[in-house]
Specification:
Layout (H helix, E strand, L loop, with lengths): L4 H8 L17 E8 L4 E6 L6 E6 L13 H18 L3 E7 L12 H11 L3 E7 L20
Parallel strand pairs: 1-4, 4-5
Antiparallel strand pairs: 1-2, 2-3
Helix pairs in contact: 2-3
Length: 153
């Protein structure tokens, strides 16, 4: 019988132990880490493989007090370590990684937190599968800010 994606993902979580994931011996339980690194903040958001069920989401701003430090590599590292710990507690063993910058008609370069978040995830003991850049690139965009002659410094 056909099961919806939601039913399939909820089948992983057993009723006996809330939050735990059932997997056969030697089989990796895979999640997807969406790292959104802008120049103002860094989000580390882990979902199940379909992307519908959130497992853990921590931002750089949740880890540091000063607003100017939200996008710093240190804040991103703390956020990634926190997320990795939650993933391990829930039984995830491997992650695919999707890195995203602001994109659109703004910058296509990931912020300063992207690299350190990725490094922290890989050092946490979780297996890393595919690493992919999913920054939205416009084929033809709305007009960019700055005017005809660009931003003059």
């Amino acid at each position: 019988q056909a099961l919806s994606a939601r039913a399939k993902s909820s089948r992983l979580f057993s009723m006996a132990e809330p939050g735990a994931i059932n997997a056969r011996e030697g089989e990796h339980v895979v999640g997807v880490a969406h790292i959104f690194a802008s120049f103002n903040d860094t989000f580390v958001h882990v979902t199940d493989i379909s992307g519908k069920e959130t497992i853990a989401r921590v931002t750089g701003g949740m880890k540091v007090k000063a607003d100017r430090d939200e996008s710093s590599p240190y804040a991103a590292m703390l956020a990634a370590q926190d997320v990795a710990q939650k993933c391990k507690d829930l039984g995830l063993t491997a992650l695919h990684i999707k890195i995203r910058a602001t994109g659109g008609n703004k910058t296509k370069t990931p912020g300063p937190g992207a690299q350190s978040a990725l490094r922290a995830l890989s050092r946490s003991g979780l297996k890393i599968g595919r690493i992919e850049d999913v920054t939205p690139i416009p084929t033809d965009s709305t007009r960019r800010k700055g005017g005809r002659r660009g931003r003059r410094l």
